[in-house]
Specification:
Largest sheet: 4 strands, antiparallel
CATH class of the largest domain: Mainly Beta
Strand content: 35-45%
Helix content: under 10%
Distance between the termini: 49 Å
CATH architecture of the largest domain: 6 Propeller
Shape: elongated
CATH topology of the largest domain: Neuraminidase
Length: about 700
């Protein structure tokens, strides 16, 4: 987190105040760690200035009468604004004649704070926290300006510690604590003046303890634009005929980013009425290689643009080749995993952006070979699910465990029968109305002995990595251990993949939580690859003394090791380029200055020290999530690209890059190696950008490999 410090306040005629503790440690979650009494000498009679208001702690009406309440007021140097915190923990005013305590000895939220005759009793003991708070020892609550208000005369009370600037106090010459509190989420996102190319987006303001500096506008995880914190609307550029999920994040001057607003489902019209279909594709040809068929054809034409081709086998649609008006679809298709020595008939239809379909191309027969000589020999559907299968791991007994992202539970699958059994719900999982929830799974090589299942998930406050034992046919949630917490979450960019390394360490991918600058902050766990001991400790040879192994990542979701023990990573780009990286200890992969090999500002990808990707993809042909490596062959499952990439690892390069299953099964999420040297593959076609359980229609496949 970047540190943002506000200006120091100075007053003449008073001494600098250094506050002493009373040995009290805040247990309320406000982070009020006491300062040692040996750190500085005691200095008296100085003002306490509210960080949020810039006004001084003040005894109302300059009264010395016991029971008089405290307030905030313009600083004027009077004795009713001169306080001392003694080594014994007494917060004194008017010299040593009056001490601060809660009214009536109360300890509840909202209890007024008053002056009383100094008695040395426990109710008059206070301590100073490193975040600038002043903590009441008896209650564990903080000295708080009511309602976060900043006006003269606002009362001061006890309230549970929350790190807000209305609970932070400084004095002349003292540097104020860093701002770590993000703004509240924007609300009431709405659109007006929607055309085929633009729309006006508006929202209600966020609140922040210091102030909102800017708003970031996204669609479906992709950054569109940013505007000033004083702006509550902007015109965005849209594409014709799209359906986008648009939302807004708020950002303060310290770089703290809010959670996302609710998602606005934005549909844009086409720029012109179009009821004219494309012409039929021509010159369709096909050739078989083992049990795969490669089709090629000559492009269709359209009065506006051809945006897709649908491929039919024996009269049934088996795949689609997607494109856009500006990026025409390819004119080839590979149909894999067919039966041996079998005749099939194919034809192709073209479509435009408004769904007008062409006449069918001519039909051609193709007969497969008698043996599998292709990279993919067969694709067998093993199971379906009405939630999103996200993490998947095969157990030593051959059964499969997979996580259901929005339903929060884990299912055991028997591949031989297709039978499924829920083994339990993971505690404290929370969706993000985007892509958070129950994500990655992993087991260590010691699973048969210790039964630990490692899980990465989103909670209401963060992303975290936990482990829970699988006992018999259930999750024993009483064994749950939180190994790593405090990983920032947001609607998108949560990472989520886990992979066990040959070094006996657990590796995890984390997204930048839609706060790109965090990817370059090695003290923050967002936008990183993490390396973790089995019990959650930091390995002694990690490069930065924490869990961070590499940094400069946007939203990595694929992790896999090759035969040399090297870690490969798959990462979502923003709008231009996805990337595959070979991960180095302590390596910087360039985000946000560099997206793939495209500079995003400054010297960008030419910045010294940035590590270039081994392979890049246009986002329209990628958005790849899971990766797997089998016999040093790399596989990537892609969502927007609706395909699986295959590449041979040669030295430190990816060679002979091929595409399979293009459009055949739609969006692909997870690919994992199976124990028998093949692949598991899952889809993610519906319900992928919400947190609604059981609103999907997904499939789990076994992919049989050849060659």
């Amino acid at each position: 987190m970047r540190t943002h410090r506000r200006p120091r306040y100075w007053m003449t005629g008073v001494a600098t105040l250094t506050l002493f503790p009373a040995g009290c440690i805040d247990e309320s979650g406000g982070g009020a760690e006491p300062i040692s009494a040996d750190d500085a000498p005691l200095v008296t009679n100085a003002p306490l200035i509210g960080v949020g208001s810039g006004r001084c702690l003040d005894v109302r009406g300059r009264s010395t009468t016991p029971g008089t309440g405290l307030q905030i007021y313009d600083c004027h140097g009077g004795q009713n604004q001169a306080f001392t915190l003694t080594a014994a923990g007494a917060l004194q005013v008017y010299g040593s004649t009056r001490c601060v305590e809660p009214s009536g000895g109360g300890t509840a939220d909202g209890t007024r704070v008053v002056i009383a005759n100094c008695s040395g009793q426990a109710r008059q003991r206070w301590s100073r926290g490193t975040n600038g708070s002043i903590v009441h020892e008896q209650s564990g609550r903080c000295l708080d300006v009511e309602g976060r208000r900043t006006a003269n005369g606002t009362l001061v009370q006890l309230y549970r510690c929350n790190g807000g600037t209305n609970q932070q106090w400084t004095s002349p010459g003292e540097e104020e604590p860093e701002d770590t509190q993000p703004p509240s989420p924007p609300s009431n996102v709405r659109a007006s003046d929607v055309t085929c190319s633009a729309a006006t987006l508006s929202w209600s303001a966020s609140t922040d303890d210091v102030g909102v500096a800017s708003y970031d506008i996204y669609h479906d995880g992709q950054h569109m634009t940013s505007v000033s914190g004083s702006a509550l609307s902007t015109t965005i550029t849209v594409a014709p005929g799209v359906q986008w999920g648009v939302y807004v994040n708020a950002r303060d001057a310290a770089g703290n980013v809010s959670q996302a607003s609710e998602t606005l489902r934005l549909s844009t019209p086409h720029c012109e009425a179009d009821d004219e279909p494309p012409t039929a594709p021509t010159n369709l040809t096909g050739s078989a290689s083992g049990t795969s068929v490669t089709l090629q054809w000559t492009a269709a034409t359209d009065n506006i643009a051809v945006t897709a081709y649908d491929v039919y086998r024996n009269g049934t649609k088996v795949g689609a080749v997607p494109g856009t008006a500006s990026s025409p679809p390819a004119t080839s298709f590979v149909d894999s995993g067919l039966s041996v020595a079998t005749a099939y008939t194919y034809h192709v239809i073209a479509r435009d952006a408004q769904g007008n379909a062409s006449p069918a191309s001519g039909s051609i027969p193709v007969t497969t070979g008698r043996a599998c000589s292709s990279a993919i020999c067969d694709v067998v559907q093993v199971a379906t699910d009405n939630d999103l299968p996200w993490g998947l791991v095969e157990l030593p007994d051959g059964s499969v465990l997979y996580s259901r992202r929005d339903a929060d539970d884990i299912v055991r699958l028997d591949p031989s029968t297709g039978a499924k059994t829920s083994i339990g719900t993971v505690p404290n999982v929370a969706g993000t109305d985007g892509e958070g929830g129950l994500m990655g799974l992993a087991i260590a090589p010691t699973f048969e002995a210790d039964r630990w299942l490692y899980i990465m998930h989103t909670s209401p406050s963060d992303n975290r990595i936990v482990r829970i034992k699988v006992v018999g046919d259930r999750l024993d949630t009483s064994t749950q251990q939180v190994l790593v917490s405090g990983i920032l979450r947001n609607k998108y960019h949560n990472g989520g993949r886990l992979r066990w390394g040959p070094d006996g360490k657990l590796y995890a991918s984390t997204g930048d939580a839609q706060n790109a600058s965090l990817a370059q902050d090695t003290s923050n766990l967002a936008g990183k690859i993490l390396r973790i001991e089995p019990d959650g400790r930091v390995p002694s040879d990690n490069p930065f003394g924490n869990h961070v192994w590499s940094y400069g990542h946007r939203n990595p979701q694929g992790l896999a090791f090759d035969s040399q023990g090297r870690l490969w990573e798959q990462e979502f780009g923003n709008t231009v380029m996805d990337e595959t990286n070979l991960i180095q200890k302590g390596g910087n992969y360039g985000w946000p200055s560099c997206e793939g090999t495209m500079s995003q500002g400054g010297s960008g990808c030419s910045t010294p020290g940035y590590i270039a990707p081994k392979l890049t993809y246009r986002t329209s042909e990628g958005s790849c999530s899971g990766i797997a490596i089998v016999n040093d062959v790399f596989y990537a499952a892609c969502q927007r690209g609706t395909r699986m990439y295959r590449a041979v690892i040669s030295g430190s390069s990816l060679t002979n890059v091929q595409q399979f299953l293009v459009g055949t099964y739609g969006r692909l999420r997870t690919v994992e190696p199976s124990l028998d040297g093949n692949l598991w593959l899952t889809t993610t076609n519906t319900g992928g950008t919400d947190s609604i359980p059981n609103n999907s229609n997904e499939r789990i496949f076994k992919v049989l490999l050849g060659m």
